[in-house]
Amino acid sequence: MEGVDTTLRKRISTGDQGAFGELFDAYARSVYNHAFRLTGNWAQAEDVVSLTFLEAWRLRERVDEDGGSLRPWLLGIATNVTRNTRRAARRHAAALARLPPEETEPDFAEEIAGRLDDSAQLALVRTALSELRRADREVLALCVWAGLDYAAAAQALGVPVGTVRSRLSRARTRLAKHMEPPSRRGQMRGDRTTAVRPIKEGNR
């Protein structure tokens, strides 16, 4: 894909709409998966995908013609879009708080609970992820779930490689700690992070 991406870079930077369509076909699923891991909501993830590619088109002239995969670039944009949509959601929630309460919709865990056999493990996953700092959760999503290496994740987030390493180490440590059920803490246990270790996406 690197040779293909190099060609795409040149075509995209000149505003080739056909090339941008190819970019979407190649990476929309990867961006969607990353967005869902950050938001935990299917609908929000779809919005992030749309906004990510709109922003990518807006920034097309900044694409360097020389380089490898465009996937880290897109995931970096998706991460920033997610941050912005969360801020907008918080402002929206503050406005709605002044209105009469409505029946709340189930969160993402309830939507996918039927796909998991161990509901207790699901509860641990939700709690563990919520305890992570946003920056650590973003690195975890990029390196563990999206399968980016340290350098690609650093490129996506615009931070030094050392920062990625330290955030990932901290995220793994905290995740392992919170994945331990209260009744089992202090006891030996096997793999405590199985439920949050889906198949990695290939680096294109």
From TrEMBL:
CDD domains associated with the record: Sigma70_r4 (cd06171)
Segments of this protein annotated with the region Disordered: 178-204
Segments forming domain RNA polymerase sigma-70 region: 23-91
Keywords: Sigma factor, Transcription, Transcription regulation
InterPro entries: RNA_pol_sigma-70-like (IPR039425), RNA_pol_sigma-70_dom (IPR014284), RNA_pol_sigma70_r2 (IPR007627), RNA_pol_sigma70_r4_t2 (IPR013249), RNA_pol_sigma_r2 (IPR013325), RNA_pol_sigma_r3/r4-like (IPR013324), WH-like_DNA-bd_sf (IPR036388)
Organism domain of life: Bacteria
Protein name (record): RNA polymerase sigma factor
NCBIfam families per the UniProt record, alphabetical: sigma70-ECF
PANTHER family per UniProt: RNA POLYMERASE ECF-TYPE SIGMA FACTO, RNA POLYMERASE SIGMA FACTOR RFAY-RELATED
Family: Belongs to the sigma-70 factor family. ECF subfamily.
Residue ranges occupied by any RNA polymerase sigma factor 70 region 4 type domain in the UniProt entry: 124-175
